[in-house]
């Protein structure tokens, strides 16, 4: 899924996917390092997670984030 979203974000140009590692393009939300990377990435951000939906903050559900 991350590869597909990365290609959509880069308008189908695979150079970004080939040059930037997965953990930098879509860092894991549940790790401290991943959260720092995600906050530093330009918008629109790609964020990866395997957290159960119940553990997401309530503000997430009223935001413009797409899942």
What descriptors fit this protein?
mainly alpha; 67 residues; single chain; 5 helices
Topology diagram in text:
Layout: H1 2-9, H2 15-19, H3 22-25, H4 32-40, H5 58-61
Question: How would you characterize the overall build of this protein?
Answer:
It is a single chain. The model has no long low-confidence stretch (mean pLDDT 92). The termini are close together. The longest helix is centred in the middle third of the chain and has 9 residues, at 32-40. The chain has helices at residues 2-9, 15-19, 22-25, 32-40, 58-61. 45% of the residues lie in helices and 0% in strands. By secondary structure, it is an all-alpha fold. The protein has one domain. Residues 1-67 form the Sulfotransferase domain. It holds the Pfam family Sulfotransfer_1. This is Sulfotransferase.
């Amino acid at each position: 899924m991350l590869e597909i979203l990365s290609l959509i974000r880069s308008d189908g140009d695979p150079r970004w996917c080939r040059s930037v590692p997965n953990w930098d393009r879509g860092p894991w939300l549940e790790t401290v390092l991943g959260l720092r990377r995600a906050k530093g990435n330009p918008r629109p951000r790609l964020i990866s997670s395997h957290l159960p939906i119940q553990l997401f903050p309530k503000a997430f559900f009223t935001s413009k984030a797409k899942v």
